[in-house]
Amino acid sequence: MSSKTSNDVLGRGLRVLGRAIRTEPRLFVVSALGSSLFGLLIVANSYIVGGIVGRVVVPALAERRVSTGSLALVVAVLLGISGLRVATIFARRLGAGFMQFRLQARYRRAVTRRYLALPPEWHQRHATGTLLSNASSDVEATFAPIAPMPFAVGTIVMILGALVTLFLTDWVLALVGVALFPALFALNFFYSRRMSPRQIQAQRMRAKVAAVAHESFDGALVVKTMGREADESRRFGVFVTELRDALVSVGRLRGVFDPLMESLPSVGTLAVLLLGTWRLQTGAIGVTELISVAFLFTVLAFPVRAIGWVIGELPRSVAGWERVEAVLTAEGDLAYGSGDLPAGGPAELRFERVGYRYAQGPPVLTDVTFTVPAGKTVALVGATGSGKSTVAACAMRLVDPDSGTVSLDRVKLPDLSAPALAGATALVPQIPFVFDDTVRGNVALDRPGIDDDRVWASLRLAQADRFIEGLPEQLDTAVGERGTSLSGGQRQRLTLARALAGQPRLLVLDDATSAVDPRVEAAILGALRQAGTSLLVVAYRRASIALADEVVYLHQGRVVATGTHAELMESQPGYRDLVTAYEKDGK
Amino acid sequence: MSDLGTFATIRRGLSLSPELRTGLAGTLGLAILQMAGRVAVPIAVQQGIDHGINGPGGPDTRFVLGVVAVTLAVLAGSTVCGYLMTRRLFTVSETALGGLRSRTFRHIHDLSMLHQQSERRGSMVSRVTGDVDQISQFLQTGGIQLLLSAGQLIVSTAVMFVYSWQLTAVVLLAFAPAIGVIRFFQKRLAAAYRTVRERSGTMLGTVAESVVGATVIRSYGVAGRTGQRLDTAVDELRQAQQKAMRTSVTSFSSGEISAGLALSGVVVAGTLLGIDGDMTVGRLTAFLFLVTLFIQPVQIATEQLNEAQNAVAGWRRILDVLDVDPDVADPDDRGVALPEGPLSVRFDHVSFRYPGGPVVLADVDLTLDARRKYAVVGETGSGKTTFAKLLTRLMDPAEGRVLLSGTPLTEVRFSSLRSRVVMVPQDGFLFDATVAENIRFAEPSLTDDQLRTAFTELGLGDWLAGLPAGLDTPVGERGETLSVGERQLVALVRAYVADPDLLVLDEATSAVDPATEVRLQHALDLVTRGRTTVAIAHRLSTAQAADEVIVVDAGRVVQRGPHSRLVAEQDSIYAKLYASWLEQTR
């Protein structure tokens, strides 16, 4: 790492700390004051110990007598200082800790708020694992230097205090401090700079090890059934060894730094002893001063490390903050309008010349025009990659098309308010998403007006009532993280019931019953036709398609034809091939 | 999570990583030499004051110079020892932790699917990553300091004892109450940090839910509800962290008080001893320095204890996994190889239930002949997937035995079993690598030409040619650049090159686009030719193509025979299933 970038990290790191201080000024002042006082007490303590030896011990040993009063005073002063130190430790550590925790909590809330506000298109571009670590470890890394920061501030105050008192004591002994402190800082700085690239390499290898483990455990079934456990262990072992090497290289540098950091203050103490003897001879100082200064160097060493801790954490902090900031400043929100829908009944969905493409990608939809008349069922049919799911996403305004309009009962979707849109439409995706909640929580989602009767009615409509009745606590049964206690088909039916519970005026099923037994699927689709909603269905199974009033046949992002299933079978050879592929082979 | 205490965890952990003891004597020797440097300074101060400054003929600069020179040499030596010690310690501990990672990784793979499913997969990953990292990070930061502090505590006590046993007794007495207080708080502290970790897990789970479910949350307009849950989880974590911090600071403030007690006790007792002629100014001063060396470890412990708690907790979680014995164990050298030739299957009164769960399979007793194709059908939850898992020994039956060509599965070496019996799982899992590398997963020695031949033999040559880079096309994370059906194609070729004698297919339930479906069916026909095949079937075509159909209902085999005969059995489960299949293709 060049010195320019490392200075840059220092500068940016300090800016992050500055922001933290501005956010929690009160706690910072409490902890920094506590810490500064702590540092000054350390200096004072050295002089008090020196003074006690010089003024009480030396005379007492010389005169072979001591007054009880002066001993009591010694005890009172030393215990008093201890008490003060405890108070300052409370202020420093609680202040710094609370400040760190509050900042973490504040930014975790801010980051997750952005997650909720940003559109699905943004989510698609970011891996779940990344978003998870943005909210957890990145926020943590950003504010990691906060914990030792007040200690470092206190240390600087302590060093300034020490230098002042050193000069007041004796200018020659003060020169030892003048030489020693910059040396300590230089050592710390040098160490942080050399350490940072090693830490980054270790972090990179950690990520690699995690990625391999994640993939390997994900594919555990394949690994096991192919008997490849040993080979997988070897593959994993390569990265483990590289990580080990990276960490050992971190350790070696530490091995240089730590003992040097220990020894430097001792060298200072020895220098004081030597110079002090000379100054004593010339009568410039007494034994008291000599012992005070020697003692001071012994106790200074430890706090100076706090500065190293802060500097050491800065690169991680900066990297974490950059990722957090990227989320906080991410753009692309879909703003909602303020419009409402005219009241009541199934809604009409209309696509007019809709076009959509991913950034720099080929067009996904081109000139798509069709209508789902109020209360009717329209099936969307097309091969993989023909744009069916994008149509479903546009219908729900999960994305906005690049051109053309999508409207519901003649109101353009961007004009609708968020509650109006959510209340009128519901999407059931192919991969069902189940919350770590009870059955009731999953179906009702605390939406107003959805009571237990409505929940049961929806479950019945989704053919899910029978298996829910078989659960130990029925509606109160917790279904576990992502619904792990349910089968795929059960999860699909549960999410379908969730959609129905809101009594949507437009329901979009994106291959939403694929894991349901065919018999059950047919029953569901039959029931939905009676449910008083317009229905847009992305389907593969011919039985499902045949239930639709009208079929929209999509090919490479364009509507090739619309009509009834029978008409399209007649007029469109491509369509015929597509929907009869199963039987051709199965005969 | 087990209830192992802190020290019990460390003991168990050390016994599982014997590498940690490598060259321990040398490392400790170096550590002691490093300590010598730390106590050299107080001794130098004492010598300097008593014999140099307060020397008989007034301050003696040359004597002091000699003392300083000797001490500097000792310091230099101790610094070098410190470097060597740290280096050794890091090499040994990181090597041991690397070993622990690898061992845990392998152990997790060896646990049966039953355990892998009951635990969350993500948490398994953190056993070999985050948890080990926590131990490693602790060693990197606080661990060495704590170790040296312990040494410093011992060495400084010893030197103090040499200077004055009376004053040493005073110091130890001053710290005695602190030890009691810290022990008292230790339990509460451990509980407080446990709460922090639990809440941290809850917070992560809540964030994960909001991210994975982003689309659902948006389309139902329930961002407010989710936001509240997130806030609660984040805030509860903060409160737990603050509580743990309060307990920790309170606990260790007792150390500070003790330091004050010790210092004042030493001054008072030292002065009184000096009056009796048992103490010089230099020795008393040295003693005050030594007390500081004695106090420092306590300060360091204060700063590092949180990390230590986390490290021990991480270690405990790893031990919890390692302590689970693989319940489906490889008989290895004690096992036998499967007999050569085609394999037949026998289920000998097999029953299965998950621990504490209902019976999944009950008393299944059947024989499957070699080289025939079987389709196992039944509704969701009927037990057909369990049937496949027992057949491939991903699980062992609760009762009864599974035999292949007369050999009980539990006696077959895994190396033999896994090369002769191959299962194609539902989702056709692919690794983030090229198509070729994914196929070679089954048979690493295959050349590109042989791979291409395999594709051609299965009628997939044109499909392969249509890929952007042919065999070298990367399939992406979990194979996501391919469609679901295409992933199954690759998984099928992978099974084909493994050339098993018994092939178990767990058919995917989700629909595949029709063009790929046609390819899939065709390839399937070719792969299964001449092998004993058991397909867990969801499709009519698979059942029709099978030599025999086995119908499972509520954990029991209720019908068995060729498709044509079973269909004719009126009102039978299979007849109903067939009717619904027909309905959807009408």
Give the name of the CATH superfamily of the largest domain in chain B.
P-loop containing nucleotide triphosphate hydrolases
- Estimate the mean pLDDT confidence of chain A: 80
CATH superfamily of the largest domain in chain A: ABC transporter type 1, transmembrane domain
Helix content of chain B: 55-70%
CATH first level of the largest domain in chain A = Mainly Alpha
Could you name the ranges of chain B where pLDDT drops below 50 across 5 or more consecutive residues? none
Secondary structure category of chain B: alpha/beta
Low-pLDDT sequence parts of chain A: none
Structural class of chain A: alpha/beta
Distance between the termini of chain B: 54 Å
Query: Could you say how many structural domains of chain A there are in total?
Result: 2
Overall number of strands of chain B:
10
Query: Termini distance of chain A?
Result: 67 Å
Strand order, largest beta sheet of chain B = 6-7-8-3-9-10
The proportion of residues forming helix of chain A, as a percent range, comes to 55-70%
**Beta strands of chain A, count:** 10
Protein name (chain B): Multidrug ABC transporter ATPase
Subcellular location (chain B): Cell membrane
InterPro entries (chain B): AAA+_ATPase, ABC1_TM_dom, ABC1_TM_sf, ABC_transporter-like_ATP-bd, ABC_transporter-like_CS, P-loop_NTPase, Type_1_exporter
Main location (chain B): membrane
Question: Can you tell me about this structure?
Answer:
The complex is a heterodimer of chains A (587) and B (586). Chain A is of the alpha/beta class. Chain A has 20 helices and 10 strands. Chain A has 2 domains: 326 residues, ABC transporter transmembrane region fold (Up-down Bundle), CATH 1.20.1560.10; 171 residues, P-loop containing nucleotide triphosphate hydrolases (Rossmann fold, 3-Layer(aba) Sandwich). The model of chain A has no long low-confidence stretch (mean pLDDT 80). Chain B contains 20 helices and 10 strands. In chain B, strands 6-7-8-3-9-10 form a 6-stranded mixed beta sheet, sandwiched between helices. The chains are: A alpha/beta (587), B alpha/beta (586). At the A-B interface, helix 2, helix 3, helix 5, helix 7 and helix 8 of A face helix 2, helix 3, helix 5, helix 6 and helix 7 of B. Chain B: One of its GO terms (cellular component) is plasma membrane.
